[in-house]
Amino acid sequence: MSFSRKTGYALLFIIAGLIIGLVIASNFNIQNKSVAQQREVSAESRALLEKFSMALAEVADTAKPVVVNISTLKTMEMKDNPMSHFFEDPFFKRFFGDENPFHAPNRKYESTALGSGVIVRDDGYILTNSHVVKDADEIKVILNNKTEFKGKVIGSDAKTDLAVVKIDAKNLPTLKIGDSSKLRAGELVMAIGNPFGLNQTVTMGIVSAIGRSDVGIADYEDFIQIDAAINPGNSGGALVNISGELVGINTAIFSTSGGYQGIGFAIPSGMAKSVMDSLIGKGKVVRGWLGVHIQSVTPELAKSFGFEDTNGALVADVVEGSPADVGGIKRGDLIIEYAGKKIADTRQFRNIVAATAPGVASDVVVLRDGQKKTLKVKLGELTDEKAALEAPAVGRYKNNLQGVTVQGLTPAARQSFKIPEKVTGVIVAEVDDEAVAKKFLHPGDVIQEVNKKRINNVKDYDSVVSGIKADTDVLLVVYRSGSYIYITITTKF
């Protein structure tokens, strides 16, 4: 067979193959499938997401009008140059006379700050954070419709970081106050405020945790932890649930940079409403007083006392003549129930007692020598003097004494740890397991000096320790087991 004939057969074979391939492709729609298809979300999914999106927008539209912008003006004073006093010395006056080259009169300047607030009554009462309006000379409140009012602080409570501001207005929009005790981790929430002065900013997230305490923001802490983005200026704004109810007041962020890092804290609406009602009605917060020193139950204490678990609040001491003393509560009792509520820890118990009105009699269930006892206790009123006497310093400091809880030397403490009357200072009640000081201090130690400064009471301790910088060694004089010793709390080994 000639070469040309072979070539012709080959070409015919190739053409025939192409024709057969096209026929097969057309039958199986291969050509169409090779073309990139346009992908679409199903109609069912679109309908569901649109409904969800519209619902969130409705919640935001409901809540935004009740959130206000709060701007404050403070007059600050700049002190003169510290070197000016040095040149007042007679030696330098010989050269400069009465002319002090470093002297400059004290100068005043104005400082402004921004925050948020929530309208809680239609006649002009606004709930915000205490730190937003603290020491403000002027307060300006801007509503959602841009109307401006002059604000006046009706009452402020630094222990919960809450304050009430009043403006001269009527028929303002308000939100229903929800039950924050029903919140659960994972629930959707919205944070509304004015971060960086950007009015009516709405962010969404979930409740990350509830009952957060020992954050170091306020004396009474029961925070809702959220991951909805909040930033400087959000303080005092609203935290709302999917029903459009106010469930919290945004108050702080956890940050190493000053900006949002995924963790925010809000004061529960239950606590906020109690404080708000007291501030509006009485101009101050009235709290219940039981008269006990309490501490957490560690696994070691639970084993020593024969407790089944670490729930409850252990009574370390009872103030003589206090409601607890009159009601029959004794040192060593484990408080497991108060006014029908199970007690999980000291934080919860302290908050419940504080929120109970003075004069109210409640049932207190304690474990004593393995037996349950129900006692009836009528609360008194917590005053600043009683608080100073009773409240321990709970080691929230950002230094090597973080996690160390101390309290005053009471007669019961002296008797329990065999501490002579001549020994003064504060006694270590508890040391967190993860604290740097865990290796150095033990419950029952009496701290007499901190960095060579005498400590007579909890106030002295707090004043000295709060001024110690992070990662610096701390020198203590401690009374332990009948003798005095020096201890250096350090991380340098």
Overall radius of gyration: 33 Å
Coarse shape: globular
Structural class: alpha+beta
Termini separation: 96 Å
What does this structure look like?
With about 500 residues, this protein is of the alpha+beta class. It has 3 domains: about 65-285, Thrombin, subunit H (Beta Barrel), CATH 2.40.10; about 290-385, Roll (Pdz3 Domain), CATH 2.30.42; about 395-490, Roll (Pdz3 Domain), CATH 2.30.42.10. Helices cover about 25% and strands about 30% of the residues. The protein is built from 13 helices and 28 strands. Strands 5-4-1-2-3-7-6 form a 7-stranded antiparallel sheet. The longest helix has 26 residues, at about 5-30. The chain is globular and about 120 Å long. The protein starts with a helix and ends with a strand. Residues about 90-95 have low confidence and may be disordered.
Summarize the model shown.
By secondary structure, this protein is of the alpha+beta class.
Question: What's the arrangement of secondary structure elements?
Answer:
Elements: H1 3-28, H2 30-34, H3 43-63, E1 67-78, H4 83-86, H5 90-96, E2 107-121, E3 125-128, H6 130-133, E4 138-142, E5 148-150, E6 152-157, E7 162-166, E8 188-193, E9 201-212, E10 223-226, E11 238-240, E12 246-253, E13 264-268, H7 269-282, E14 288-289, E15 292-295, H8 299-305, E16 313-318, H9 323-327, E17 334-338, E18 341-342, H10 346-355, E19 361-368, E20 371-378, E21 380-381, H11 384-390, E22 393-394, E23 404-408, H12 411-417, E24 426-431, E25 446-450, E26 453-454, H13 458-465, E27 474-480, E28 483-489
Antiparallel strand pairs: 1-2, 1-4, 2-3, 3-7, 4-5, 6-7, 8-9, 8-11, 9-10, 10-13, 11-12, 12-13, 14-21, 15-16, 16-17, 17-18, 17-19, 19-20, 22-23, 23-24, 24-25, 25-26, 25-27, 27-28
